[in-house]
Amino acid sequence: MQAQAAADALAAGDLIILPTETVYGLAADAANPAAVARLYEAKGRPRFNPLIAHVADWTMAARVAALDERARRLAEAFWPGPITFVAPIADPSLVCDLARAGLDTVAVRSPAHTVAQAVIAAFGRPIVAPSANRSGRPSPTTFADAVAETGQAAAVALDGGACAIGLESTVVALLDGPPRLLRPGAITRAEIEALVGPLAEAEADARRSPGRLTRHYAPSAPLRLDAEAPRPGEAYLAFGPAPAGAAVFILSPTGDLREAAARLFSALRAADALFPAAIAIAPIPERDLGEAINDRLRRAAGYVG
Ligand code: TXA
Ligand code: MG
Known about the structure:
- The protein is α/β, with parallel strands linked by helices.
- It has helices at about 1-10, 35-45, 60-65, 70-80, 115-125, 145-150, 190-195, 255-270, 290-300, and strands at about 15-20, 25-30, 50-55, 85-90, 105-110, 125-130, 155, 170-175, 180-185, 200, 225, 235-240, 250, 280.
- The chain has two domains: about 1-210, DHBP synthase, CATH 3.90.870.10; about 225-300, no CATH class.
């Protein structure tokens, strides 16, 4: 069975390509520092940037992290699913120091993908899985893109089809004080605030997030945001009614934010493959999933340092 082969590879200290509902991950045994070191190396990821421990469910999460009432409420509403909690580490033997970048906190998420769930169940312990791109590049949302990015480093690569959501999970810190939004994502601000009250903005410790480094999620071509139309030589990502053209990629013909999120990273990759002068992108409204889409676009453009 595929999941068992993947679990065996993890137990042997190898890396695997793992599909989730958000983006493809490159996964390792969370408790094995040598495997986690190889994971950072394969991605070219700075070691001060901690990883997410993927768990089967609340029970496994509660062994790893000290989760409070707010986490319980959010998990009941959204797990398995695209929201990650940062909470105090409860058992450091389950998620090694290197995976946590030496922090006394840990990020946990239960993914809503049958393949990811089957692998975690077969392995029986948490798996760390950053997005399967090389550090700084767009996250892979198809099996082919994941294999092209980091497949060489993986002993096993599991094909779970195209990712349904296409944007990384929302990351919320549940520590002292109000909950803080460290990374906007598939579960929106409004959905979270309805359950746990107003979110504070991430400040100092969010600087440890990769998104806070210059140019993350970035293709090779420069990006031009809020573009009503392409200029000569540019590729164009349209949202809603689109101009005709060979280098036009439609995120959503009807202006649907979920559809646009699901297509965003693969459209950036496809546009980049044409080696355009720039990739121009239509304005995306800031509401709902638009916050996460615009966050990724601003970082890909290098606007957030
Ligand atoms: O949707 C996702 O979350 C995907 C799929 C594969 O599950 N994974 C993913 O992982 O996006 P990665 O490593 O690319 O992003 C993890 C984010 C980073 O922004 C990291 O800085 C943050 O979570 N993070 C992890 N542990 C943290 C901690 N203890 N404190 C603050 N931020 C943390
Ligand atoms: Mg990433």
